[in-house]
Structure formats: structure tokens, C-alpha cells
Specification:
The complex is a heterodimer. By secondary structure, chain A is an all-alpha fold. Chain A has helices spanning 2-30, 34-43, 49-74, 82-99, 106-133, 137-160, 191-208, 210-220, 222-228, 232-258, 270-280, 288-308, 314-328, 334-354. Chain A has a domain at 55-295. In chain A, 74% of the residues lie in helices and 0% in strands. In chain A, 47% of the residues are buried. Chain B has 2 domains: 10-246, P-loop containing nucleotide triphosphate hydrolases (Rossmann fold); 264-523, P-loop containing nucleotide triphosphate hydrolases (Rossmann fold, 3-Layer(aba) Sandwich), CATH 3.40.50. Chain B is built from 18 helices and 24 strands. Chain B is an alpha/beta fold. Chain B has a 6-stranded mixed sheet, sandwiched between helices. Chain B has a 6-stranded mixed sheet with strand order 18-21-22-15-23-24, sandwiched between helices. A 4-stranded antiparallel sheet of chain B has the order 2-1-4-5, with helices on one face. The chains are: A mainly alpha, B alpha/beta. Chain A binds chain B through residues 1, 3-4, 204, 208-210, 213-214, 216-217, 220-221, 223-231, 334, 337-338, 341-342, 344-346, 349, and chain B through 18, 20, 22-24, 26, 29, 65, 313, 315, 334-336, 339, 345, 347, 352-360, 363, 366-368, 370-371, 376, 379-381, 383, 405-407.
Chain lengths: 359, 524
């Protein structure tokens, strides 16, 4: 157990390290002043409260979509619907925040709940199709992302659009619905607390409740789960609904924390980032915030670098891609691992033999 | 190592072989092994003793960490199975590697196909080749038969011929009799002796003492990855071999008192299940098991036993006919509903159904009861209680492991089976359905599992035992049935009154009881 965790951690670190080396090479080849660019990429984001605030606020939606994906991946359901769930969650929160008048704490609560329900409702479609008709959730969830996106746009355009606003945007959200800022000088909002709360909840759900146990066993070996009497059809459905619910909450929190109107006419892509975060965290809910912050740091670093130096931020997208490929490469370091294991066993063997007399 | 004074040609030797698997298991520790030309040499040992690993190294499927292989006086490096074949080493695996839809001749020449004009496959030539080798080595087989239609014994013959056609001088047979009926085993042994007389060297992996005594010249025993020396078979008794294999005296007989039979626990009527190919794989099966009784089902594998178990446990639905458990109609009920009636199930394939290899021992041991009130407080599971349960079962069932958090995949086969058994036997079952409970399990664990089964039966549990191991069903069962092509073809109220050979006749479909005979005994 310990050894496994060690090698997984080592593999992740090596992957990140290798990607950084590659980043160095790219930066050195495209930049006239690579030292300057590198400084803004790596060091600058950590030097001001504002940038640190930026990193953390970027991490909030990543935590939610990361949790959503890890919930579904743990059950071995390759539902990629977090993108659509996130978007429709934000739309639902907008609807509630515009339409209702409630006291400050109550309104955001209901707006976020509405976001979660919308996301959960959305992912019910691929979940039920998988459970009842054995339709691939991968395909149906990808298709569903389009449906949810255009359905959201339709709702905003036809029911919540502010004709007075110059660009396409919804009416102003009820100020009581917005999440409070918690770090002066930054836009970091209360959503970070909600995110951490959900990290703990998801962890407890997966590792401390019978439904979480059933979900994990179904993911590990569905035939074993069926043989044990676990209702795997139910797991297939509820794992995806909860995943959609988490993504929807993420969308709602992001909207209420960062915006005064709904202005997305392009899906923000946090659902895909959630896949990256979940893979890097190996679906461990407790590691999700770590890698969400790390990805946020990379993004902000890229932004800062692009703003101050001559290296475009697209370089960072390439680096991310490389990192994911390396992290998911199961065989990476397997040779090293094998040698360590062999050495360990040989030593154990010698110890054992040392105590025994050979005839 | 013993030094033999006889000067016989040592055709192959392996020296100081050490192999460590990526999961840290040291399967071979400084193992020496050698065979002489023209002998039948057994490799014996419990499961996990390292027999298969040693042979996989010899056949180029695994690379050792240390050690060398010397073939005909020369040090060689066997990097792959094809390299092994080039050296004249052939292997017959336990699971045949044949293309079922092709004919015998086609299978035989795969990879070395004779060609017409160097381009087109020459089927007539392939048939001729097959006829030639089959005559030469006295292994009769019809070259034009489609493999799928052949019995297991014939398929094995093709595998042996495949190795011979490719020029094998040394044949490795991995537990060749595990899948055979007594008659087929007899035939195989005659053929092997015939091959030996023609100068072939045969390495025979087995843990069946009787067979090894019967057919081999020498034997090498492995225990816990180490060689326990080479022995002349005729000078070594079964008891000695068994002592060397497990390092203590193993009861070869099961101590079992008279059955104290009570009311019926399981009853089925005209149980029928059709396969995807629309064949009745379970055909009108009537059976009854009473409290405190072990009913054995013998049969060559693939005659519907597996499906029968799946129906009884709710793993396969829907089916026709009916099942009653403790007088409750459970026809087409789910696994959960069946388990709730205190039915335990030891599945045939432990790695696929019995455990989640990625899960910990604890996670695996609680899978049938994690949702019971006893182990939950509100929405949360009582983790402390579950851990305690796992710890005490590990102790009671003597599961050798680092801790209850250890991944099940890291355990040896016997210990994995003990995890399954610990879970299934500790739930106070009224009916146990045990499908191959000791398959691929070492002698020590086998003995333990059998004893536990008998103990539960003595305490009043009804047991359905399905096993391909004839000795096991005959030793353990109070009553015995034989399944052939989905049907019950024989029933013996008293399992002790039937001989192995007689069972074999029923298993192969050479004999069957009339409906009256079956009905007569069953209602009696």
C-alpha cells in the first residue's frame, strides 16, 4: 500500500518535472529573454496577493469539476458531462438569482442548490441510458454537453436577457445572491469554503458510507460487486447523477462568486479541466484541491508570462497536455520500480537466511 | 542436491534462478533444476510455490533476475517463447491456445503454414503433415475435425502435436490432467510414456501425488519458491512428497462423520436455462439438499455446472423452472434476495467474482454485509467495527498478510481464496453453494477449506459442492450427482458406493441412469 502510493506520487512528480523541462526548452527557443519569461511564469504568480488570489479563485471551479469527474471515474463511468453540467448549473443559478428575492444567505443557498439540481438532472440522461440500454455514457454525455449548452443559451436569451446591456448578457443578478469576497485586494470569494466543504463531503461519501463503498467496489470490479449483491445498476445511475450535481454546483458557485451577470456565450471549459485534475489526483478527493490549485497556478503563470514577456500563453496548454500524458502513462518508471522491488526482496531474503543455519 | 552416480545425459539445466515479480513476490529463490534426456520429470509444489514461474522462465515468457540456463552443455538465453521453440522446448498450457473455429490441421500449422507456390495456403499439405505426425507419435486425431467440436482430451492432443511439429524435444505440460476425465488421463499417460520411449523429455507440472507416482521417473519439489531437491520417484512415498511440499503432515483423507440430515433447504424443479446459442445448458434439473448434507456435483467442466450455480445464486436470470430455499419460492430472485436468505456462494473464479483485487482485505471481507444495520450508524459506516470484523476473520481463517489494509492482489492464491471463504463461511449460512472451492489452492489451504465445509455441514448447513476434482467430490459429498450436457445423468444417495471409474463413465456420457432410476432414488 505504502509503496504503491510512493510510486504513484513519484510518477506524478516526474511527469510534472519532465513537462517543466520541456517548458524550459520551449521558452528558451521562442523567447528573446527566457530568464525574464521564466521568472514571470514560475515566480511572479506567487509574489503578490493579487496573483495568489487569482490562483485560488481559479482553483474553485476546478475543485468542483475535479470532484465531479473523480466521483464518476471512481465508479468507472466515463461520463464527460461535467462541462455541460457546469454550464447549466450556472444558468440555473442565474435564473434563481434574477427571479427571486430572498435574504442574503438564503438566496445564494437556493441558487447553488438549483445549479446542482440542474447539473444532476442533466447527467441523469446518460446515466439512465447506460443503466437501461447499455448506451456508452462517454458518447451520450459528450452529446449532452452540446444540448445543455444550447439549452442554457436559449434560456438566457429568451427569458433572462437584458436588452439594455450592450453585449449579450443576462439581467443583473440580485446582489443578495452573490458570494462575499473573503480576501481583501483579491476577488477570492466564499466559494472556496464551499469547495473545501464539498471535498470533505465527497471524501466521507466515498470512504465512509455504504453507498460510497458500493460505488467504489462497482468501479474496482463490477462482477465482484454483482456477486456480492450490490445493486450495480443503482450505482451506475447515482454516481453519474452526483457527478452532474457537483459540476452544477461548481457552475453556480463560479457564477455567483465571480460575476454580476451571466455573460458566457461560450462554454468556459472547466469541465475538461476537471478531467485533468481528477486524473492527476488519481480520483482521490483529498488531492483534488492540491491539483486544482496547481493547475490554477500554471494558468495564472501562463497569463502573467504572456502579459509581460514575449512567450504566448498557448505554450502552457502544450505543457499541460504533455503532463497529462506522462501522468497517465502507467509504465513510466516501471523499470525503476521493478529494480527497487527486486532489491528490497533480495535484502529481506538475506536477512531471513542470516538467522538460519545452512546445513 | 543429490548426486546421481548414473551417467545420464543432462539435456537441460537451470542454475540459481531467482525471479521477483513487480508486486514484490519473489516467486523463485535460487532454484536449481535439471532434466535428463528421455525422462518424465515432475515439478511439484503447492500453488504459489513457483512451479509455473520456473516453467515460464524456461519457455521464455518471463525473464529471471538471476541465474542461467544450460541447454546441451551451452549457456543459452531464452528471450521469448519463439526462442524457446527454436531450442526445441515446447509447452502445453493449461488453457489451450487453439483457434476453435479452425480445423485440427489448420491449428497445427499456424505460423508454419505449408504454401503452394510460396503464396497460397496448402491445406492438403497441412492435412498430410498432421496425419504424418499423428501416426509417427501415435497420437490419433482427425485432421479435418473442427477444434470447437472436440473433447478436451483431443484438444490437448493437438497442443502436444503442435509442439512436436515445431521440433520440440522437451515438452512442458502444465497440469495436463486438471481438465481430463479418468479415462482421458489414462490415455494421455500411455501417450506420454510412448513419447518418452521415443527419446522425448517431458516436464510434468502437477500437484496430484498419485499421477506423479504413476508416471514420472524423477521429481523436483518446490516450496515457497525454493527447490526442495530432486528425488527418484520410485524411492519416494506419497507421504514423503507431501511432507516436502508443505513441510508437515497433510491429511490426505477427510475426517467426516455420519451426516445428520434434516429438512430440505434447497429444492429445484425442472430448472432450465438456455445459452445465447439457444442450447439448453441447464436442462430440467431437479435436486434437493437437506440440512446437514453435502450434495456433490461431479462432471467434466462445461457441462452446465457453472450455469446451475449461477441460477441458484441469482447471478443469471431469467430462467424457467423453479427454486425454493427454505420453502420460499426464490425463482428469478436477485443475488441480494438470495443472499438475504442466508445463502453463501464460493464462486468458480475468485479473481473475477470472488474478490476485488484492487481492494483491501477488509473491503473484500465486508462486501456481503457492509450495508447491514449492525455495521452502520446513521449514514456513516462503523469503520471501527468493520475493521475489527476483518481482523478477527483474518485470524480465524489464518489469512497470511501484512494487515487488513493490504491489497488482495498482493496475496497468494490460497490466501485470496481464504478471504473469499472467510466472508462466505462467517455469515452463518444455511446453504453454501461452493463451486470449485479449492481449485488452484495449495494443499494446506485446501485441507483447511475442506475441514471448514465439513464443520459447517455438521452444524446443520446444507452444502452444494461443485468440483472438477473427483477426489474432492468423492471424499466430501454425502450424496453425489453427475451432470452431463446440462442434465443430471446419475444420482447416488450414498456417495461412498460409487467408484471413480464408474463416475467417469457417467461424466463422459457413456452411461446414464434411466428416468425411473433417477426418480426412484431421488424421491427415496
Amino acid at each position: 500500500m505504502g509503496r504503491r502510493v510512493f510510486f504513484e506520487a513519484a510518477r506524478t512528480l516526474v511527469a510534472i518535472g519532465a513537462a517543466f523541462v520541456l517548458a524550459l526548452i520551449i521558452i528558451y527557443s521562442v523567447s528573446d529573454d527566457p530568464g525574464f519569461a521564466l521568472y514571470h511564469f514560475v515566480v511572479a504568480p506567487l509574489r503578490t496577493t493579487r496573483y495568489i488570489g487569482n490562483i485560488l479563485e481559479m482553483a474553485i471551479p476546478l475543485i468542483f469539476t475535479g470532484l465531479a469527474m473523480s466521483m464518476m471515474f471512481t465508479a468507472k463511468q466515463f461520463n464527460l458531462g461535467a462541462e455541460g453540467g457546469f454550464f447549466i448549473g450556472a444558468v440555473a443559478a442565474t435564473a434563481v438569482a434574477i427571479s427571486f428575492d430572498m435574504p442574503p444567505v438564503v438566496l445564494p443557498f437556493f441558487a447553488i442548490l438549483a445549479g446542482g439540481l440542474a447539473g444532476g438532472l442533466g447527467s441523469t440522461v446518460p446515466a439512465v441510458l447506460k443503466a437501461k440500454l447499455n448506451a456508452s455514457e462517454l458518447v451520450s454525455s459528450l452529446m449532452l454537453n452540446f444540448i445543455l449548452f444550447w439549452f442554457g443559451i436559449f434560456l438566457i436569451n429568451n427569458y433572462f436577457r437584458d436588452e439594455m446591456a450592450g453585449a449579450m448578457a443576462s439581467h443583473r443578478l440580485n446582489p443578495d445572491a452573490r458570494l462575499i469576497r473573503i480576501l481583501p485586494g483579491t476577488r477570492l470569494h466564499f466559494g472556496i469554503i464551499i469547495a473545501i466543504l464539498f471535498v470533505v463531503l465527497v471524501y466521507l461519501f466515498l470512504f465512509r458510507t455504504r453507498w460510497g463503498y458500493a460505488l467504489r467496489m462497482t468501479g474496482q470490479n463490477i462482477k465482484f460487486a454483482e456477486y456480492s449483491g450490490i445493486n450495480t445498476t443503482a450505482v451506475i445511475i447515482y454516481s453519474q447523477i452526483i457527478g452532474g450535481f457537483l459540476a452544477g454546483i461548481g457552475g453556480a458557485v463560479e457564477l455567483l462568486g465571480m460575476y454580476s451577470r451571466f455573460t458566457w456565450f461560450q462554454s468556459p471549459g472547466y469541465g475538461w479541466d476537471g478531467v485533468i485534475v481528477a486524473i492527476m489526483a488519481r480520483n482521490n478527493p483529498l488531492l483534488i484541491p492540491v491539483f486544482a490549485v496547481f493547475l490554477g497556478y500554471l494558468r495564472i503563470g501562463a497569463d502573467v508570462m504572456a502579459r509581460f514577456s514575449d512567450v504566448p500563453s498557448e505554450v502552457v496548454a502544450i505543457i499541460q497536455g504533455i503532463m497529462i500524458m506522462l501522468v497517465t502513462a502507467e509504465r513510466l518508471l516501471s523499470g525503476w520500480r521493478h529494480r527497487v522491488v527486486v532489491k528490497e526482496q533480495m535484502k529481506l531474503e538475506q536477512l531471513k537466511n542470516g538467522g538460519v543455519n545452512h546445513g | 542436491m543429490e548426486v546421481s552416480l548414473e551417467i545420464m545425459e543432462e539435456i537441460l539445466s537451470m542454475k540459481g534462478i531467482t525471479k521477483v515479480y513487480p508486486n514484490g513476490v519473489m516467486a523463485n529463490k535460487n532454484v536449481d533444476f535439471s532434466v535428463r534426456k528421455g525422462e518424465i520429470h515432475a515439478i511439484m509444489g503447492e500453488n504459489g510455490a513457483g512451479k509455473s514461474t520456473l516453467m515460464k522462465i524456461l519457455f521464455g515468457m518471463e525473464q529471471p533476475e538471476e541465474g542461467e540456463i544450460i541447454f546441451k552443455g551451452e549457456k543459452i538465453n531464452i528471450s521469448s517463447p519463439s526462442a524457446a521453440i527454436n531450442y526445441g522446448i515446447g509447452m502445453v498450457h493449461q488453457h489451450f491456445m487453439l483457434v476453435p473455429s479452425l480445423t485440427v490441421a489448420e491449428n497445427l500449422v499456424i505460423g508454419i503454414e505449408p504454401k503452394k507456390n510460396n503464396v497460397f495456403f496448402d491445406y492438403d499439405q497441412a492435412i498430410k503433415m498432421t496425419e504424418e505426425v499423428s501416426k509417427k507419435y501415435n497420437l490419433s486425431i482427425n485432421p479435418k475435425a473442427v477444434v470447437d467440436t472436440l473433447a478436451v482430451g483431443k484438444k490437448q492432443k493437438i497442443e502436444i502435436l503442435k509442439a512436436l511439429v515445431r521440433g520440440a524435444e522437451i515438452l512442458i505440460l502444465d497440469e495436463p490432467t486438471a481438465v481430463l476425465t479418468p479415462q482421458e488421463t489414462k490415455e494421455l499417460f500411455e501417450e506420454l510414456i510412448n513419447l518418452k520411449n521415443q527419446g522425448f523429455t517431458i516436464i510434468f507440472i502437477s500437484h496430484k501425488l498419485k499421477e506423479v507416482k504413476q508416471i514420472t521417473d524423477r521429481l523436483t519439489i518446490l516450496r515457497n519458491g525454493r527447490s526442495m531437491g530432486v528425488h527418484e520417484t520410485k524411492d519416494t512415498s506419497e507421504q514423503e512428497i507431501s511432507n516436502l511440499m508443505v513441510g508437515r503432515d497433510v491429511l490426505l483423507k477427510v475426517d467426516k462423520g455420519e451426516a445428520k440430515v434434516g429438512k430440505p433447504v434447497l429444492k429445484t424443479e425442472k430448472l432450465t436455462y438456455y445459452s445465447d446459442e439457444d442450447k439448453p445448458v441447464v436442462n430440467k434439473v431437479d435436486l434437493e439438499i437437506k440440512k446437514g448434507q453435502i450434495l456433490g456435483i461431479a462432471g467434466v467442466e462445461g457441462n452446465g455446472q457453472g450455469e446451475l450455480v449461477d441460477l441458484l445464486t441469482g447471478m443469471k436470470t431469467p430462467y424457467s423452472g423453479s427454486i425454493w430455499i427454505n420453502e420460499k419460492d426464490t425463482t428469478n430472485h436477485s443475488v441480494k434476495a438470495v443472499r438475504n436468505l442466508k445463502v453463501s456462494h464460493i464462486p468458480e473464479d475468485r479473481m473475477i467474482y470472488g474478490v476485488s483485487g484492487d481492494g483491501s482485505i477488509e473491503e473484500n471481507i465486508i462486501s456481503d454485509r457492509f450495508d447491514k444495520k449492525k455495521y452502520n450508524t446513521g449514514v456513516l459506516m462503523n469503520v471501527k467495527k468493520l475493521t475489527e470484523l476483518a481482523k478477527s476473520l483474518i485470524e480465524d481463517y489464518n489469512i497470511r498478510c501484512a494487515s487488513e489494509k493490504q491489497q488482495v492482489r498482493m496475496l497468494s492464491g490460497g490466501n485470496i481464496q481464504k478471504v473469499v471463504v472467510a466472508r462466505e463461511f462467517s455469515s452463518e449460512p444455511e446453504l453454501i453453494i461452493a463451486n470449485q472451492p479449492t481449485r488452484g489452492v495449495d494443499v494446506g489451504s485446501t485441507e483447511f477449506i475442506r475441514k471448514q465445509l465439513v464443520k459447517l455441514r455438521d452444524e446443520g448447513t446444507a452444502v452444494l459442492l461443485v468440483s472438477a476434482d473427483l477426489n474432492e467430490v468423492m471424499e466430501l459429498s454425502d450424496s453425489l450427482m453427475v451432470m452431463y450436457e446440462g442434465e443430471i445423468v446419475a444420482y447416488f444417495e450414498d456417495a461412498t458406493e460409487v467408484t471413480e471409474m464408474e463416475l467417469g463413465m457417467y461424466m463422459l456420457g457413456l452411461k446414464r441412469m434411466s428416468v425411473e432410476e433417477l426418480g426412484g432414488v431421488m424421491s427415496g
